[in-house]
Specification:
Layout lengths: L6 H4 L3 H11 L7 E4 L9 H16 L3 E6 L9 H14 L7 E3 L4 H13 L3 E4 L3 H7 L17 H12 L9 E4 L14 E5 L13 E3 L1 H12 L3 E5 L6 H10 L7 E5 L11 H9 L14 H7 L3 H11 L10 H15 L1 E3 L1 E2 L2 E6 L8 E6 L9 E6 L2 E5 L19 E4 L4 E9 L5 E8 L17 E2 L2 E2 L4 E8 L24 E9 L11 E4 L3 E5 L8 E8 L3 H13 L1
Parallel strand pairs: 1-2, 2-3, 8-9, 10-23, 12-18, 16-19, 21-25
Antiparallel strand pairs: 4-5, 5-6, 6-7, 11-22, 12-15, 13-14, 15-20, 16-17, 17-18, 21-22, 23-24, 24-25
The chain binds one RNA strand of 75 nucleotides through helix 6, strand 6, helix 8, helix 13 and strand 19.
RNA sequence: UGGGGCGUAGUUCAACGGCAGAACGCCGGCCUUUGGAGCCGGAUGCUGGAGGUUCGAAUCCUCCCGCCCCAGCCA
């Protein structure tokens, strides 16, 4: 497999440069990366960036990438999350092959290595409470001081550590600490905790253990066990790298992995923090982890974002070490690119208003041929029934149109896509003055949508035959937060939630070819946007989620009009 | 006030001592049986600042400024 001529491998960044140099100079024989999620929540778009990076590098350089669950804290972790994470990584398009691993697989080895450190006088059991440890640690500007237990003899430490494992002590009563440097400017070196007592059932090891290793003591050693060559993580772990290296140097590990850090992803109008996402779910601001408004992979999948768009986006934004916030428009662009190419076109009317074509024979039905995707001739054509009474979009008519409104208006001829030219002659209103029906005539010579005399119309409208229409619920989605940088104004994050992030339209009409469309499929409703069939959908009651709108020049004209008149 | 990082168009990134570029966004035009898509064109930078080295600095050096991360028995 030669990826090196493909466009994706032309992309470069400082990490790929390092990998290429390590391979070239023989520091590694082949590259091994890993994606190491903690199963304490669902994966989000920020994780997708890391997944694309790790799996992408492995595939571009002919190496491999492991999926490793960093499951060292049973009080926060659940099997549900493990299952969801595996599903999401696969959905994104990546395969870890044989290399599904769990840090918990290494608990016995990690324990032995802890014993090794104790024997060398490089670790000790501390009886201080959590609060005392914090006090002894010092502050950012003042050095810490030694715990009274710091010089405990190795034999006593060994004995105590064994008894910690045996379950003789309650939670929080003792910890195992590395013995490094209480005065270090790097706080991670001030005798970091290696093991804590947690009498809690673990999703995988059950009650086999009541002491669990900390992240610092587990991560690098797990990398070493798996032969990871490049351990890639986010910037907040930079300060941990010297400690990561310290364990690799002071333990008889089978390989010497190295850690590299990159800037985590931030996106406007949303938030990528597991803590906040968990709150959104638990407090009911959204309906679940897979709510279409959530930036989780399960959320965007339900919204209708294709995995390919997500991967393209990851390639677009690149990898760097500076903090940044990507405009969500860039993600949306990547998604539209894919959907424009792949989504079949259909007719759907969201806010229906009735059209009656007075000179069209009552009871007549014509099957109008129309293309499934102008971007892809191989998608073919389909037949859409046309009849005397139709639904069109309420927004496509104005009784008193402003200058730049091209759509239907009294006396104006427009095209019904793939059907006929029609002209509105009369507007029927109800008692409240609401337009309820548009009486039109059609020109039989314009069948298919073009006129033999060559006359033009400015607008083309989508439509659905009333007699053949399939009712559907359509859920309109918008950004979760109104503010591009949620919480930046210092107010509570949740006050900035967009109240209009979801709008449910219960009475929409779609063309009959959509009657049996399966959940998960995405189509373009012409002129409106992309719509994905929600899992709530049944053949009796269709439900579509609006993935994204199409770019709409008219909304810009409207906005400018408002500005001018203001 | 200790330690570790980061500053290049509005945004995300390139440029690795040799004319500061791309993508997204924005503006204008063309085209159009989607006001979509596509095509063409345009604007936008004191490369955070000040010194220095050099024929030549975004790039190397010094100082300054700003922003981010670290004081969990979370990861």
């Amino acid at each position: 497999m030669d990826n090196h001529t493909s466009s994706s491998s032309e992309r470069s960044d400082f990490i790929r440069d390092i990998v290429a140099a390590d391979l070239r100079d023989g520091r590694v024989d082949s590259v091994v990366t890993r994606f190491p999620p903690e199963p304490n929540g669902y994966l989000h778009i920020g994780h997708a960036k890391a997944i694309c990076l790790n799996f992408g590098i492995a595939s571009e350089f002919g190496g491999r990438c492991h999926l490793r669950f960093d499951d060292t804290n049973p009080v926060k972790e659940e099997q549900e999350y493990i299952d969801a994470i595996e599903k999401d990584v696969r959905w994104l398009g990546f395969d870890w092959g044989e290399h599904l691993h769990f840090t918990s697989d290494y608990f016995e080895q990690l324990y032995e290595w802890a014993v090794h450190l104790i024997s060398e006088g490089k670790a000790y059991v501390d009886d201080l409470s959590a609060e005392e440890i914090r006090e002894y640690r010092g502050t950012l500007t003042e050095p810490g001081k030694a715990s009274p237990w710091r010089d405990r003899p190795a034999q006593e430490n060994l004995d105590l550590f064994k008894r910690m494992r045996a379950g003789e002590f309650p939670n929080g009563s003792r910890v195992l600490r590395a013995r490094i440097d209480m005065a270090s400017g790097n706080i991670n070196f001030r005798d970091p905790v290696l093991y804590r007592i947690l009498h809690a059932a673990h999703p995988r090891t059950g009650d086999a253990w009541c002491i669990y290793p900390s992240y610092d003591f587990a991560h690098g050693q797990s990398d070493a066990i798996e032969g990871i060559t490049h351990s890639i993580c986010t910037l907040e772990f930079q300060d941990h790298r010297p400690l990561y290296d310290w364990f690799i140097e002071n333990l008889p590990v089978p390989s010497t992995p190295h850690q590299y850090e990159f800037a985590r992803l931030n996106i406007t109008h949303t938030v990528l923090s597991k803590r906040v996402l968990l709150r959104l779910v638990k407090e009911g601001h959204v309906r679940g982890w897979d709510d279409p408004r959530m930036p989780t992979l399960s959320g965007i999948r339900r919204l209708g974002f294709p995995a390919e768009g997500m991967r393209d986006f990851a390639a677009m934004i690149g990898i760097a070490r500076s903090d940044s916030v990507v405009e969500i428009q860039m993600l949306e662009y990547a998604v539209r690119q894919v959907l424009n190419r792949t989504a079949q076109r259909r007719f759907g009317v969201l806010n229906p208003v009735k059209v009656v074509i007075e000179n069209y024979p009552e009871g007549q039905v014509e099957e109008m041929e129309t293309v499934n995707n102008p971007e892809d001739p191989s998608a073919g054509t389909r037949l859409v029934p046309f009849s005397r009474e139709l639904w069109i979009e309420r927004d496509d008519f104005m009784e008193d149109p402003p200058k730049k409104f091209f759509r239907m208006a009294p006396g104006r001829e427009v095209r019904l896509r793939s059907a006929y030219f029609v002209t509105c002659n009369e507007v029927v209103k109800d008692a409240d003055g609401e337009v309820i029906e548009l009486r039109c005539t059609y020109d039989p010579e314009t069948r298919g949508g073009s006129s033999p005399d060559g006359r033009k119309v400015k607008a083309t409208l989508h439509w659905v035959s009333a007699a053949h229409a399939v009712p559907a619920e359509v859920r309109l989605y918008d950004h979760l937060f109104t503010d591009p940088n949620p919480g930046s104004d210092g107010r509570d994050l949740f006050e900035g939630l967009n109240p209009d992030s979801e709008t449910v339209l219960p009475t929409c009409y779609v063309e009959p070819s959509l009657a049996d469309i399966p959940a998960g499929e995405t189509v373009q409703f012409e002129r409106l946007g992309y719509f994905c069939v929600d899992p709530d959908s049944t053949s009796d009651s269709l439900v579509f989620n609006r993935t994204l709108t199409l770019k709409d020049a008219w909304v810009k004209v409207q906005a400018q009009g408002k500005q001018n008149s203001a």
